[in-house]
Task: structure prediction
Amino acid sequence: MKTPNKETEDTWHKDPNNWVWGIFYYNKDDKRLFVDKKNPNLGATINFAHPKSYLFFVGMMCFFAFIVFMILMSKNN
Result:
């Protein structure tokens, strides 16, 4: 995976067309799975144009659902 140079990264990041509703990053030219949020102090987000992004997102949701399920099951016992 080739990392973009800082100038290209800044151009992509500042382009409002790469942000759906201002919170979801979607850029087919950017091959990174994780990118900084609009405010880099708030962490990273997923590039939803990356082929593996939806697999990662579904896996993350399944993990959290499993945790909630385990908590609810432990309260019933």
